[in-house]
Known about the structure:
By secondary structure, chain A is an alpha/beta fold. Helices cover 36% and strands 27% of the residues of chain A. The radius of gyration of chain A is 18 Å and the shape is globular.
Amino acid sequence: MLLQLNNIFKWVQQGGQRIFLLKDVNLEVEEGEFISIMGPSGSGKSTLLNVIGMLDTFNEGEYEFLSESVHTLKEKYRSNLYKEYIGFVFQSYHLLDELTVEENLEMPLLYKKVKGSERKALVADMLDRFNIVGKKDLFPTQLSGGQQQLVGVARALIGKPKLILADEPTGNLNSQQSEEIMQLFQKLNKEDGVTIIQVTHSEKNAEYGSRIINLLDGRKI
Amino acid sequence: MFKNHIKIAWRSLKKQAFFTFLNTFGLAIGMAGALIISLYIYDELSYDKMFADADRIHRIDADIKFGGAEIKAAESAPPMAGALKRDYSQVESTVRFRTLGSMYVKKVGGETSSKENKVTYADSTFFEFFGIDLLVGNSKTALTGTNSLVLTKTAAEKYFGSTDVLGQDLLLNNSDTYTVTGVIEDMPKNSYFNEYSVFLAMAGNVASREELWGSNNYFTFIKLIPEARVEDFQAPLQGMLERYMLPWAQKYFPGMTAESFAASGNYIRYHTMALTDIHLHSDRNSEMNATSSIQNIYILSFIGLFLIILASVNFMNLSTAHSLKRAKEVGVRKTLGSNKLNLIFQFLTESGLIAFISLIAALLITMITLPFFNGFTGKVITIPFTQPLFWLILLAATIVLGLFSGCYPAFFMSRFTPVKTLKGGASESVGNGRVRNALVIFQFSISVFLIVSTLVVFQQLNYIQSKDLGFTKDQVLLINEISPLGSKTNAFKEEILKMGNVENVTLSDFYPTPSWRSDSSFFQEGASSQESAIQMQTWGVDTDYLKTLQMNIVAGRDFNKQYATDSTAVIINEATLPILNVTAEEALGMRISEEIELENPTYYTVIGVVKDFHFKSLRENIGALGLHVNKTAENMAVRLSGGDYSNSIAEIENKWNEMAPGQPFDYQFMDEAFNTTYEAELKLSQIFFIFTILSIFIACLGLFGLAAFNAEKRTKEIGVRKVLGATVSQISYRLTVDFLKLVGIAILVSLPLGWFAMNKWLEDFSYRIDMGVGVFVLAAVLSIVVAIVTVSYQSIKAAIVNPVKSLRSE
């Protein structure tokens, strides 16, 4: 068991009323799964992903990640936990514009306090593996959307996470680029055993996964 | 990690070149201003500390009240030094100076004279006392013989082209020959003896050896032995009054005792003034050299501090405003595993980097502006590049400044949550900017305060310069040092009077400008005791004096050449009347004398009363004054009738060269001489002006940055408003008004403070302006206008953006 959500509730107070973003969500994720979260706008997909990624908190319920109770952890331990085990991929890539491709890849390793020589090796490996060695000195704005997302995925992977969380990773890409990224995800999942949870609107993309979770108004259906 | 921080800091600074420029520039200006002020203050505080044993050297000062006048004397009686040394073992050595003002000096046999502005008699102990080494000559004997003098290096080179000049002769004021017996280095710029270039042996000053306890003309310095405490010396010093002063006075006022002296309300209070305190703390009536005031140091310190705080606040504002652009980065970094501390450290690195770039810029700015600053302060301040301590302090200050300015933005930005910033909702995370608004209010409060201060200082100076002084200072040419004319003086005066442009000419040693004064005690006819003494200025003038300076007679008449009796006539000013306890009419015919103790004193008869005219600084009230006819004079005043002055001056100079060949023609306009009295205020006002401009500038940078931030934050709102039909002017107005509210609050805060502070400053002047509402209205309007100009650029820029663009990004 990689993670387990039990009776998760999340709400915001608006005009004296509770608006539920997540309502009694239960979820178990085994290592090696590839899950797609689907649902209409405002159904709580991203919120759920953020909760799983520990970027967001919840009001009620329990969350266990690798047998650690996330809901009881202090922020510092929480950030250590996700730093160690979770990689994020975003719809709008969120690469740092001031850094080159190589430096963007290096960054998570800096925060993990990986030594310089090892860092260099890991970054070189990743550049090789994604076939972007020739682009290592370019800045994100000099790349196409697909290439940027490729870097985004590489960055998420470089820390050797157990889990990758992808929030509409192909939302800003054209169909050909989308397919390439989804195939990459599939390969990572099958060959390297990385657990992936993605939020998507697209049925086609969802089919790459092994399981689909549908959300409506914060509830799993 | 650190390398990565520096790298990303450098790149994001480069990318946001304009913001970086605003930030660095504001900080650099603030730092440069503070640096210049610090160097200036350091120089002011360093006065006279270079002399060996400076901590043991003190000047004998006296507060004297005698005959209605109060004098704060820096000079002592000639025998004071000798008596102190003789009577008290605490006194290790003494030295006296008797200043002579300016003198014309030339090489014997030379063609033309040149003017030395600061000449003084000095005791032979001078060199040993201050630890001054002679470049040539013997320090023990250099100032022992009469007619020997010691020159500074610059003076020696001026007259002889070298310092190897022992035994050479100089002619002073074309009459006395002196032999050079030594050469010293120029006196340090930051010393009380700055610009003194010629030291004459005291042996040549006969009065210096006389037991004249009543005349205070000798600047007297004592050096205490290392064991002595100066506090313990005050009582013995005061003992001089009963031991020497009173016994001497009894010769003239028989029966006067210490008790009767004190009972009459008179006093002489001796005290010491530490050498190193003179420059900033001395408040004497006359000094060997212009002194400054500790008050100015305080004011400058405040201004320096203000500048740094302003620049720092500016930095905070711009950085947090800029943070919208960095919000995404914070979010990404957090998801990649960065914690708050990491981010704080990163942002502090960045502000440290900016602080260092600013430091370099500030040093450049300082290097460029320092010569100008030196120009108008008359100092020779340099940046002490070679001193490790300077660098240490500078670096430490820069780091502190970088941390101080950086910490609010760093904490502020590190709080951003990834969930919000990565969804593009950064504007929510940066909050409503209460702190930023407070900072802008703070900045503008300081600026408005400085504007008020500057306006008041300027108004007061303007008031001084345009005040009815009781005489007309414009169009009067003062010709100094006319003694070379000798017997031809009157002929010269007649020749000038014949010239077309000349209205009047007068000869006198005394003018209502800062020049030598003559204070003496007069007694009304029939008075028998010193209690009734009237301390008054007595000026020897010629019969054309009042006409030339256009002074008004309120009672009686002016001097008249035809009346032989006018040689013993006196014209008093109105301020003398209350002391005599008479009206102007009653005063006419009264007789006064200086020599009441003599058998047949010479009496002066009051023939007229002149309307009060200002002859001291407007800081002081007009004192009692008497004018009497004198035959000889060193100075001449010429009233011109307007037209082309340069022709008149050339004409007069030609006549001068004809009648006094080879002598320098030294003149100045009276209004210029008058202005030197207010040089301190003038300089203060200039400093105020410069730094006010600087602070307003920095505050505007901050406002500009904030306006940019605000416009960016409200992009969506502006877009929506435009879609709904708002016009560009309506939107710009909305955006601008918000800032004007802040400026308005700043004005409300700072105007009362400004009023209070300037009231305090004005208290120093006996004659001062009333601060009207005008100053405050003007300051308010000025700051509002400046704010509108600054903000409207950003507001208009934001308002003309196509709403399609601004709404799409949401």
